[in-house]
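testing teh design pipeline on a random one, pls ignore if ur not involved
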């Protein structure tokens, strides 16, 4: 699931590198209105990109500004890693980084059993997080089809030069062999670490920034 929003320090770190940073919430999660998973979260990213072409208004003091991005980079981890990979299907996205990404929901199966004994994962989320996730069981069930919000379903459509993945062999949630197989099938670069658990994007980006920035600057 989209985790608690706590990447503000990373956003500030990237801004000091000269990037304009947007830290969105998927539709229907946390501060965002709407229904989570009614549409692919990858579409949420495309909708944010649509918004970049329009004048923006800062809500606290009402300051207005406009952007004309020449390049757009998407960074996502875990659940959001799938969105980062799928975002590259949008021609406006230059490159993407996917940190410990979910690449095939069908292989993960009932992974929610690792998180709760509640037979209904959606009921568990409502009890544990209240309004943080506006999710209906029928929308969550779409993941099991293997066609909805699933990078593995789009292997033939993905450009391996547009995304790079990071993963750890001791990740307790997403099997590294699944990600390694996906990397082999797509031809996309994978940085595979022996240890690190479920990698935090907060640590991966600063630690491997030279490699990431070189990937961003490489020609497609």
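output:
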């Amino acid at each position: 699931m989209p985790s608690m929003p706590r990447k503000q320090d990373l956003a500030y770190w990237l801004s000091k590198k000269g990037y304009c940073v947007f830290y969105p919430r998927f539709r229907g999660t946390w501060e965002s209105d709407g229904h989570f998973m009614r549409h692919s979260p990858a579409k949420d990213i495309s909708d944010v990109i649509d918004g970049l072409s329009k004048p923006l208004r800062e809500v606290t003091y009402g300051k207005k500004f406009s952007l004309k991005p020449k390049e757009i980079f998407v960074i996502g981890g875990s659940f959001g890693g799938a969105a980062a990979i799928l975002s590259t299907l949008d021609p406006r996205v230059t490159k993407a980084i996917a940190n410990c990404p979910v690449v095939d929901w069908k292989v993960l199966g009932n992974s929610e059993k690792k998180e709760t004994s509640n037979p209904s994962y959606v009921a568990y989320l409502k009890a544990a997080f209240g309004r943080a996730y506006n999710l209906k069981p029928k929308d969550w069930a779409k993941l099991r089809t293997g066609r909805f919000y699933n990078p593995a379903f789009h292997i033939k459509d993905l450009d391996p030069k547009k995304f790079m993945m990071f993963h750890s062999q001791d990740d307790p949630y997403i099997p590294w062999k699944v990600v390694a197989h996906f990397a082999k099938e797509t031809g996309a670069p994978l940085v595979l670490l022996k240890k690190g658990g479920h990698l935090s994007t907060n640590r991966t980006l600063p630690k491997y920034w030279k490699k990431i920035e070189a990937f961003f600057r490489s020609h497609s």
